[in-house]
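Sequence, please.
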């Protein structure tokens, strides 16, 4: 009888732990989505940034399939999970993120965390690669301002390219810093295309199918943990590209606009 009672207590404890985990994930409304979505939501709250980035990329790719679970996760008891889920939902539904963070000490709301008018976000879903292997990446531009903005680019067939205006800036583990173009081919000679990015709307410059062909850049194949960011140069060539345009939009700030730093590990 004692053994049976101990067994039942262990089963009940396991059920309570599992139930608490699900409540932390989905607030009080139950289990969101299918098993794959639930697993990705758990990874979205992981302490490892690479795991979070990969989960976010897969949830973005699932889009409509993931949205119901993401909306539910916005009410999660884990504040970090709720924040990341809310940002994904806002992005997928075309809303800019503006956060108001309450003060834990006084209970008085702090000023809103205002994002820069133009923001670039770089994501590398799989950042642990072998030397010479291509690195897949995403680059997203967020127009956090109040007016449409003009982004210049070229097309290679149906593929938009930004090599005439943008570079990857790479800081190797040994301290060397250099730049490479985001495409392995020359910039087309045709006049640039200009796209209007509405206020409050994000635009993907590169999708996850885009690759940094590391085999073409010998210095990027060195073993080690390196940092990389995407820089759009909105100065000379960009100003010439948008000068005199009749588009209903404003030029980007006349500066080099840099994304966040992402880490890659080459082995």
């Amino acid at each position: 009888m004692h053994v049976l009672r101990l067994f039942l207590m262990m089963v009940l404890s396991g059920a309570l732990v599992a139930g608490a985990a699900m409540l932390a994930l989905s607030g009080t409304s139950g289990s969101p989505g299918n098993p794959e979505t639930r697993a990705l939501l758990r990874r979205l709250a992981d302490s490892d940034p690479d795991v979070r980035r990969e989960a976010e990329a897969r949830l973005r790719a699932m889009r409509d399939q993931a949205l119901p679970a993401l909306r539910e996760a916005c009410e999660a008891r884990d504040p970090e999970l709720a924040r990341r889920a809310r940002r994904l939902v806002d992005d997928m539904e075309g809303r800019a993120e503006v956060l108001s963070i309450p003060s834990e000490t006084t209970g008085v709301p702090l000023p809103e965390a205002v994002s820069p008018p133009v923001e670039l976000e770089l994501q590398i879903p799989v950042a642990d690669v072998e030397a010479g292997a291509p690195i897949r990446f995403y680059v997203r531009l967020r127009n956090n301002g109040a007016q449409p903005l003009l982004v210049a680019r070229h097309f290679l067939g149906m593929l938009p390219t930004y090599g005439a205006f943008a570079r990857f800036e790479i800081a190797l583990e040994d301290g060397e810093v250099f730049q490479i173009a985001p495409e392995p081919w020359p910039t087309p000679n045709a006049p640039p295309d200009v796209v209007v990015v509405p206020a409050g709307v994000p635009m993907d410059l590169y999708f996850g199918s885009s690759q940094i062909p590391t085999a073409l850049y010998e210095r990027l194949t060195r073993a080690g943990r390196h940092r990389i960011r995407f820089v759009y140069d909105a100065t000379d060539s960009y100003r010439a590209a948008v000068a005199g345009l009749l588009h209903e939009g404003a030029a980007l700030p006349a500066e080099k606009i840099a994304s966040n730093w992402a880490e890659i590990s080459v082995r």
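The CA atoms of residues 118 and 143 lie 5 Å apart.
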